[in-house]
Every structure is written in structure tokens, then in C-alpha cells.
Amino acid sequence: MAQYKKDNIKESIDAAALNAFSKKGYQATKVADISAFSGVSVGNIYRYYKNKDEIFYSVVPESFPDQLLGVIRDKISVARDKHDAGSRQFEDVTEAFFRFMLDNQKKILIVLTGSNGTQYSDMRSQLAKSLLSVVKSIYEEKYIAYISRFGSDEMLHLIYENLIAAYSHVLGLSYTEKEMVNLIKQINLYHFSGITRLLDI
Asked: Distances from the Cα of 56 to the Cαs of 15, 27, 48, 131, 180, in angstroms?
């Protein structure tokens, strides 16, 4: 019973930390805010965690950005051209993508918009670079032709930064899951249409 109560307190602290960090960001969040969100005293929080840093990396572990990158990368990779939409693999990856985004809404918001002062502070740019490298590997010949035509991939990098920013914006809205999925679908459609036009796919 004592262990059950202890686990419940830690879960309350963790849930409150996710709320606080996603709403205020890492730098603006104080342990007192987590206490207010959780109803657990500051002193009691320090029985579970040494400091705010430890709380942060407990609720948003170092493995999470790689998970986020993997899910978005899979979504991009599965739709190599217009004919892939509707395939079983496309549907499975799309479902996994939406499920991950919705289940990890607060963590994604923290990593992409509330992580200044942490090791994730440059994550939006890093994600954009990683996703662009996926595009290079999938559409190698088209990418080379694009560079030959325009001279650099600076615009492509900006497009992927804007894709990440659009996801962040939608996940920060107070919408139902259905409404959020609908908005993210529109973002993906707009993005895919633009990339296929630019790379002449």
C-alpha cells in the first residue's frame, strides 16, 4: 500500500511537470509551479527528484527526440510518390504517426517550443536537418537536380523547419483529437504537394 501511494505521488509529479513545462517552457517553470499543478508540496517533490533538471529529463527522456524523428522520418519515407498513398504500409505508418503525435502531445511541445536551457534547445533545427537528409537519400537524383537548378538546399531546410513549426502550433491548440488529426493531415498534404512540385517527383 505504501509503495502504491509512493508511485501515485510520483505519477502526479510527473503529470504536473509535463503540464508545467508544456505551458511555460523549461526556463520559466519553477518547482513551485509543479507543486501547484500536482498538489504535492515542494519539499515532498525533492524527496523524489534532486532538482528541476532531473524532473525534466525524467518526463522527457533523452531517447524521446530520436523517437519523434523516427516517426516523422517513417511518415516521409513511406510516401515516396503520389502512388504510395492508400497502400497498406502507408496506412499503417500514418496511423502510427498520428497515434504517436497525439499520445505524446505535451512532450513534443516541450521539445519543440519549451526546451530553451536544455540539451533540446536546438531540436527544431536538428529535426529539420535530419528530415532533409532523409529526403536526400530517398530522392537522390531529384535532389541533385534541384541543387543544380537552384544552387543550394536552403529553401528545403526552411520548408522542413516550417513543417516542424506547424506541427508544434497545432499540438498547442485546445482541439479534440479528431480536429487535431484533421489539421495535421492538411499540413502533411500541403507539405507533400510542395515537396513533390519542388523536386519534380
From this structure: 11, 11, 13, 26, 26
Q: Read off the DSSP letter of residue 118.
A: S
- Round the average pLDDT of the chain to a whole number and report it: 90
- How far apart are alpha carbons 167 and 188 in whole angstroms? 9
The residue-averaged pLDDT of 169-191 equals 92
Which pTM value belongs to this model? 0.88
**SS3 track for 11-55:** HHHHHHHHHHHHHHHHHHCCHHHHHHHHCCCHHHHHHHCCCHHHH
- Report how far residue 147's alpha carbon sits from residue 131's, in angstroms, rounded to the nearest whole number: 17
Q: Give the CB-side neighbour count of residue 117, counting CA atoms within 13 A.
A: 13
Dihedral angle over CA of 192, 193, 198, 201, nearest 10 = 80
Q: Which amino acid is at 18?
A: L
More confident residue, 114 or 2: 114
Backbone φ, ψ for residue 39 (5° rounding): 80, 10
In the numeric block, which cell numbers belong to residue 138?
A: 530517398
Closest of 13, 4, 56 to residue 38, by C-alpha: 13
Strand, helix or coil for residue 152 = coil
